[in-house]
Amino acid sequence: MNEAATPNDACAGLILLARNPTDSVTEGFLPAAARLGLAVTLLTDQPDAHHEAYERYARERNGGGPSAGALPGRLEIVPCDVQDFRAVIARTAARAARVGAPAAIFTNSDHLQTQAALAADYFGLPGKDWRAALRTKNKAELRRGLAAAGLDTVRSAELAPGDALAGHGIPYPCVLKPREGVAGEDVFLVADDAELAARCREIRVRRPGAALVLEEYLDGPLHTLETLGDGHVLHPLASFRTDISPPPHFIEERLTLLPEPPGPCTGQVLEQLRALGVGFGACHTEYVDQGGRARIVEVNYRAIGDRCDLALADALDLPLFELILRTHLGEPLPDTLTVRRGTRVRMEYVCADRDGTLKAAPEAHVQEADGVRLDYRPLRETGERHPLYRTNRDFLGVLRATGRDEGRIDAAVREFLAAHCWEIVP
Predict the structure, then answer these.
(1) Cβ–Cβ under 8 Å, residues 373 and 350
(2) Binning pLDDT at 50, 70 and 90, where does residue 183 land?
């Protein structure tokens, strides 16, 4: 990359949109922005949560002392209704009048891609096509877009509030989900008309007025494709194999980094992404491999989450977060990315199986033995009480196992899980 192209002066500013704090932002994008010399204005509808998260992260990294550059020294957290693109534009314009125009507008949130793309376009900055951002977020539009391009698409039906459920034309069993949902929330496998009606009523209690989609059930190995593009070149970086819980829910239990790209069906997935207009910045695509036929489950137009992006950057020895931000700064990607191959990674998620209070759980720690590095991070503090969500919000902790021998990795994970206890009480 062209180092000289990166703005490093005091006026160089990044507008970062976020809702709740995430490890991707706290440990990935904010430190990357600091390394690039960017002042960050974080627009969020949850400012207190971000202040607390960054103070806790600084304490953990520096033993309670002053920050050693883990986060940008010039970080301003500004309250904003980030789900409204008009509010984002107004806040950005006010900042520009005060300290100068921003160099980039960026988000890694599923919920805010369209808003960020519209704001970037308004200010004439590099960014995603807002149509592609909307098309990938809206699962009904995604299916229509692939069908219009004449590409393999999944049979689906859109269920607006008040629509009759009969005659949808999707064979049972099929998958019911919110049209703009994320993280497997309110996603169910339904077996017949009666179960479909019951699940629709259940979802709409939690999501009044939400549009739903009913989709063909895809049976087969579930994979991801992680890509990075600059609007011209589109690099397939890596693929994960994903293991999910048994139906009727779809909870990710573990992800295993496949040792060498391209993953199965990579060419087909790239063709479908281009048809959807996807090709700028990071994208995390989930698909089922049905006998060599790539059937897209969903397209998440952002970097993979749940600490997999951090693991991927380490495994590939790639400045992933900086590269993503550089694309939003208008810098082209190289035609070839030099990455390290051969490292194997397994991400194991410890998931609550009931509601209640977490009474006991292991603390964060790292250990290395027999060629395997284990890095465990708690995702829920002891003493916290939660309902059972049946999504990734049930994760109690995540274990990253890294090495070069898959058998040793699997053995190390089994030993770690057997040696520790996660106790939930009513």
Answers:
(1) no
(2) confident
Smallest Cα–Cα separation from 81: which of 117, 106, 49, 46? 46
Alpha-carbon dihedral angle through residues 269, 274, 276, 281, given to the nearest 10 degrees: 90
Task: Name which of 32, 21, 20 is nearest 54 in CA terms.
Answer: 21
Of the pLDDT bands very low, low, confident and very high (cuts 50, 70, 90), residue 356 is very high
251-279 per-position pLDDT tens digit = 999 999 997 766 679 999 999 999 999 99
Q: Could you tell me which residues are beta bridge partners of residue 365?
A: 376
Q: Are strands 356-360 and 156-159 parallel, antiparallel or unpaired?
A: unpaired
Instruction: Please give, one letter per residue, the 3-state secondary structure of 243-266.
Output: EECCCCCCCEEEEEECCCCCCCCH
261 preceded by cis ω (within 30°)?
Answer: no
Sequence letter at residue 261: P
Burial class of 15 by CB neighbour count within 10 A (0 to 12, 13 to 18, 19+): buried
Type of residue at 257: L
Contact 178, 203 (CB under 8 A): yes
Q: What's the chain look like in SS3?
A: CCHHHCCCCCCCEEEEEECCCCHHHHHHHHHHHHHCCCEEEEEECCHHHHHHHHHHHHHHHHCCCCCCCCCCCCEEEEECCCCCHHHHHHHHHHHHHHHCCCCEEEECCHHHHHHHHHHHHHCCCCCCCHHHHHHHHCHHHHHHHHHHCCCCCCCEEEECCCCCCCCCCCCCCEEEEECCCCCCCCCEEECCHHHHHHHHHHHHHHCCCCCEEEEECCCCCEEEEEEEEECCCEEEEECEEEEECCCCCCCEEEEEECCCCCCCCHHHHHHHHHHHCCCEEEEEEEEEEECCEEEEEEEECCCCCCCHHHHHHHHHCCCHHHHHHHHHCCCCCCCCCCCCCCCEEEEEEEECCCCEEEEECCCCEEEEECCEEEEEEECCCCCCEECCCCCHHHEEEEEEEEECCHHHHHHHHHHHHHHCCCEEEC
**255 and 240 Cβ atoms separated by less than 8 Å:** yes
CA of 143: how far to CAs of 109, 213, 349, in Å? Answer: 21, 10, 30
Residue 219 backbone dihedrals phi, psi, to 5 degrees = -100, 125
Nearest to 108 by CA among 55, 30, 41, 11: 30
Q: How much is the pTM?
A: 0.92
